[in-house]
Write a structure and sequence with these properties.
- By secondary structure, the protein is α/β, with parallel strands linked by helices.
- It is 46% helix and 9% strand.
- The chain is built from eight helices and five strands.
- The protein has helices at 40-46, 48-54, 75-85, 96-108, 112-124, 130-140, 143-156, 172-179; strands at 2-3, 12-13, 26-29, 34-38, 68-70.
- β3 (26-29) and β4 (34-38) form a beta hairpin.
- It starts with a strand and ends with a helix.
Length: 181
């Protein structure tokens, strides 16, 4: 995360409720150049990370006189994460790998309630997608979920007969532990 002078390159606005400059006091700009108009107070309550960050001086402004904060995640990750922090309907996430990317951002930004919700959602994918859940859990250091997924995978899979996108994202040691679970 870095502060920089807002560029003149036209950013795209996020969807409701993050698209109204009048109902916000800061802008989160994603890596794919989407502006999320948000309130500091909501993010500060949801995340000690943001609470600490907002206590620092912020001088980078856009045309609306809102500070612009660049984040490294793209809008497909930030949108559902913000929806978990805001008093709006929670997003429906149908892919355990995408859920893992959102969970990784929630962990990074210390959004504790979002982390709790996302971990619970990840567990629901264990029966239909145990290998994908194992990959996400290993990547994020979630040992309890990794063990649950390994048990489920091992109970219905012949070793070596399955491969899913993302397997290359775990270490050989994690894959070895899965095979020998």
């Amino acid at each position: 995360m870095e502060f920089r002078k807002a560029t003149k390159k036209q950013a795209t606005q996020a969807t409701y409720p993050f698209n109204d400059p009048k109902k916000s006091d800061v802008i989160l700009r994603t890596s794919d150049n989407v502006d999320f108009y948000v309130y500091r107070i909501i993010l500060s309550v949801a995340s000690p990370f943001f609470e600490s960050m907002f206590s620092l001086p912020q001088s980078v402004l856009d045309d609306t006189n809102h500070p612009v904060i660049d984040v490294s995640e793209d809008s497909k990750i930030i949108d559902p994460l913000l929806r978990l922090c805001y008093p709006v309907d929670d997003p429906i996430i149908m892919d355990p790998i995408i859920l893992g990317d959102i969970l990784e951002a929630a962990l990074k930004y210390e959004a504790t309630e979002a982390v709790t919700i996302l971990k619970s959602c990840l567990r629901t994918f264990t029966i239909p997608n145990p290998l994908q859940v194992y990959i996400v859990a290993c990547r994020l250091g979630l040992e309890d979920i990794a063990s649950l997924a390994a048990y489920e995978w091992r109970s219905k899979t012949i070793v070596g007969s399955s491969y899913v996108y993302g397997t290359s994202k775990i270490s050989a040691g994690a894959f070895y532990r899965l095979i020998n679970f």
